[in-house]
Amino acid sequence: MNKNIDTKKIIISNPLKLDCGKEINNFPIAYETYGELNSGKSNAILVFHALTGDQYVSGKNPITNKDGWWSYVVGENKPIDTNKFFVICANVIGGCMGSYGPSTINESTGKQIGTDFPIITINDMVNAQYELIKYLEIEKLFAVVGGSMGGMQVLQFVANFPDKAKLAIPIACTSSHSAQNIAFNELGRQAIMADTKWENGFYSNYKLNPDKGLAVARMAAHITYLSEKGLQEKFGRKLQDRDSLRYGFEADFQIESYLRYQGSVFVDRFDANSYLYITRAMDYFDLSKQYKGNLSDAFKKTKTKFFVISFTSDWLYPTSENREIVIALNSIGADVGFVEIESDKGHDSFLLDVPSFLKTLGDYINSTYKIINERRI
Amino acid sequence: MKEEFNIISNLIEKNTRVLDVGCGNGDLMKFLQENKTKDIRGLEISKEKVQNCLSKGLTVIEGNAESDLKQFPKSSFDYVILSQTLQAFLNPELVINELLKVGKKVIVTIPNFGYWRVRLQLLFKGTMPVTENLPHEWYNTPNLHMCTIKDFYNFCSTKNIKIYKSIALKKSRISEINKSNLNYKNLDSHLGIFLIES
Question: CA distances (Å), B68 to each of A300, A323, B39, B62, in order?
Fold first, then answer.
């Protein structure tokens, strides 16, 4: 949570006009890179992270000391092989891993910005990250890739910068946040705001942290990332460190204990206000509305190749919503591939060891890279 | 297989836009990509086969021709190919109509149920035919609507579908089908290949 994070950072001096009408400038973007940019600058892949992700895609996350959030996908000899590709990932604005967010210290007051931070959108996040690409002097990315909120950023990126990526891979996402998605996010926000230690978002001024509220938010959200079958198979009605029910409200069941643990580790690494701001950005995401109700128009100007991926057991961003993106692209004759991967790991499938997903994604990226490079010769 | 690919490839003009419906593992797509055009897409219902295609870098969508062809705009492809798949649909007529909408021209290939080897099995053995080209037993075949070259020929004329070219294949021997040799070709060919237009 911005506790003296020693991270790569640039300061964006260009003013950025946000969707809410406010303008920001001289703001930090924290990022990480993996692999090396080749001399032709043709091997760069921009990865967008999801709600609670960060710039530490692969290797050890220096803050949590755990593996990077996409270690199954990105790394040496992984589907996105860092021996071959130059992978960039930035912490989104609104985040809490060094980019401009509610836990950034306002230098004039010496205090965290808190809820004085402006409301940001997926569009704002993408525009801010484009500044990083300019800073790195990459004229054209080989690919933009991301799952969940990262997928939304992929779609927004191609809509905003139609000639800046050769390949776009939105995974387990949507072009428009559904009522169900908004409902779950609202549940999380209300849990945080109901915590008396939230203090209208200025908890850091009082050396407080609404950790109970944030933990509940995380627990509720975590359920939506799994599938009923996955939960049943992993936990069933198994009891936690006991042989019989205790007739009380302790964590009798393993699933309770698991969720409590997930909540408790989350509050150590994530800022409650960031959770509010980023979920809001997701709720506001409606790409087809940005194009007057016609999603296809978002992609009319682009020649970018698309590969859309969904998962059978993902009920948070179900196949039907991913298919809408495919349909919109097909209806303008765009170059789009699509597959629904069989998995019982729910929405989280894109983060986990799902062999057919990892193989298809890796093979596709590598053969497309080869085809595109051959074409140039 | 190779002969069929060659015939299909010869029916297609260079650098045109092609959709392969029921593209399987993408063998025909790869063949056409190397010989005719880079601008080729596939539609396939089997997840596993879609993954195989994507792994080769082919642009393929997982979907069902009976419901998912609608998403493509009218005449958005110069050629739509349906290779030995028509008989597997619940409603072949509907699929042909969808193909004719999406493609300016359509190439349909048909395993010929009128081939004499097929006919003989039913006539003499009294069992449902199993051949090299139709390897399934009656209880596990995906083929719901088998037809003959003559059936398809007649279908096109009844539905006012224009046949540009019709080719019969027997082993590797290629010949043209026309009205006067239709009965003979229907008896003597294992595969019919039709280039049609609405």
Answer: 21, 10, 20, 9
